[in-house]
User: Fold this.
Amino acid sequence: MHPMALDAVLMVLALAAYAAGAIVLVVYFFSREEWTRNLGAALAVAGCAAQFAQLAARYAETHIWPLLNLYGSLSLFSAVAVAIFIAFAFRYRLWFAGGFLLAIAALFLAYGTTWNEGVMPAVPSLQSYWAKIHVPLVVSSYGAFLVSFVFSGVYLTRYYVERRLVPAVASGSTNDEVAGWLGTLPSLTQLDILVYRAVSVGLPLLTLGIITGAAWAHEAWGAYWQWDPKETAALASWILYASYMHLHTRASWRGLRCSWWSVIAFASVIFCYLGVNIWISGLHSYKV
Amino acid sequence: MASAQPLNNLKSDVLRLLGNVTVGVTLLALWGVLTLIGVVVEQGKDPTSYFASYPAPIARAILRLDFNDIYHSVWYLLSIGLVLASMTTATFTKVIPRRLPPHRAVKVDAIPLHDHVTIAGDAESVRARVEQFFTTRGWRVSKREIDGTIWAFADRFNWARVGVLVNHTAILIIAAGAILYWAWGFSGETAVLSGEASQIPQTHALIRLDRFSYTIEPIMTKGGIVYQPIDYVSHVTVVGRNGIPTPMIVRVNHPIDLDGTLVYQASYGFAMRFLIFHGRALVRALSGRALLEGDAFAIPGTGRSVVYERFVPTIDPRTHLPSPDPRVSDPGAVLGVIESGIPLGEMLVPLRTALDLGDGWRVVPERQVVYSGFQYRYDPGVPLVAVGAGLLLIGLVISFYFLPARLHVRVDDAGGDRAIVGVAATTVKGYDIFEEAFRDLIAALRQNQG
Ligand code: HEM
Assistant:
């Protein structure tokens, strides 16, 4: 088979696995049937493996580092998010949240395929070993933040459903089924800690990503910090997650408010990742 | 002495305010928002361009609040200054006292993470066995007698309590590095024509461009042909402090070090040499000088001047318009003519052909001269920033992955050759984060000793 065709086949496989896995795991979220969890987990693992194989196949064929455009970078983003989620899911039995994560990963991946421009060698400033270090670090941090975002989403869902439900249960006007189902989710406290743990993966990665970016900028452009829109937006996200970490030391902020904060911080990550690339030009639009 | 009191009160109020974590986070968030404003509002543009992009009141506000150069504005520097002040105050007033608590007695039942385990044996021997149990699991156990009761304290990752200090110190070190550049560093840009030399004004070092080469490849993509630059290389001879001319190569991503000043490949372009004729005669005084893009020269005795707008590497032979191919094959120059300050228009003039300017004047773009754009920078703060960045990373890993926890253990005789072991746990991050581990630990204790 032509290797580029292999690239495309693996991409389609990954997308199909994520889409199917998303559906199966959303069913699991509501039904708690064990077989849906097992099938969904297998699909998540298969899709993730297909994605890494796709990136490797593309690199092997073109000898061009595949992460320097949105096609490759979004692919790594969803692959890392799914990989980090899989690790969390095995460690903390969290497959119930997998449907949402896989659905989001599939959307980003599908969006990434619209940026496939074919094979392009890198412009001189991107021909650096730093590209091989900096880009995966930053993209992986975004992946971890996506996981924390999904956990925040589950936290907020549980929080608001519970708030509606508890008075209803007390007055006997609702069935116990929903309450029973809620009980199968981790407690709010546990969900809050999960968000924190995912941020604990993302923030050191983002810090390292910004540091390696600064080292690269120092080498390529002469200054480790240039207030370029991309690096500045990354700084803003970093500040928001550093604030999250501080707020999480306050008992009154843990839980609800911290979950909202993590949602806002993730919005700034997406702005930094996609918004800046698409709307704002700067050194990271790669001129020299 | 009487006036010292209000002053002291003010000082302690300010310190309390700055050391408050919520105030600190608000300042951090403010810094984040200002940073984002700088991403959204384009920086360093001509004032008129803001009026072109925004409604007039917003454009005026942008200019008045210095949002067009936000990272050098008073606001921005003030926000960073306040963050640093708040962080430092919090470190001394909160972090250090709270994070290094002395061993003291507690009410076990009053601490949310607590449990009791009944174990056979007298208090003394049970205490020894429980201590042994924690020690083999990696806890560091120490004993104190407080008000007649013997307490055992088991600490885990006690050293990691300094994580916050490492982080906060790292941020201060990075700030110090940035200040060093601000105080003693410099940077600039210079364009050096092939065969010519340029001096770095601050150090008087000389850079001569012997040759510049570049590679551009046409690449077929889904959207059509794209001309992708592959490499830029400047062959230079530099003369630094030692006075010895030294040949060197500068390429993108590979700066050279000139007595501590780093010189980077930043850009390249084409200057143009013109021949200027009046009647049939070459006007030597005006000819031969190389003009950079955007430069102009005036035609004597007229109100006219000619601007060298830009270089066109290839003129399409069919359309006679600039081709998108950036490789030089059939070059030309776009010239603008200005009459008494009013632009009359632009012309694409092939090389070695004349443009008639009227009154017997003709101008001929004769030959392009490639130049290399260098950026140079001396930054004495880099080592500090690098050390700070490394520390920051280490501090984050410590803070996130090594959770210091303390077990407060007391063993009391329960009669009938049994002892009750009361254990309460505290961590630097509240109780929830340690709950699971605590339950596992107590379950293991029960199983091991029960
Ligand atoms: C406005 C500025 C800041 C203030 C007022 C501040 C204050 C504090 C305080 C009081 C704590 C201890 C919280 C507790 O144990 O209850 C803390 C923890 C911490 N700070 Fe800061 N800080 C600031 C900025 C920063 C920055 C910019 C960083 C860089 C990443 C940072 C990193 C940390 C870390 C890693 C912790 C430990 C968090 C944890 O263990 O969960 N701080 N900070």
Remarks:
- Residues 1-116 of chain A form one domain.
- The CA atoms of residues 22 and 100 of chain A lie 7 Å apart.
- Chain A touches chain B through 56 residues (CB under 8 Å).
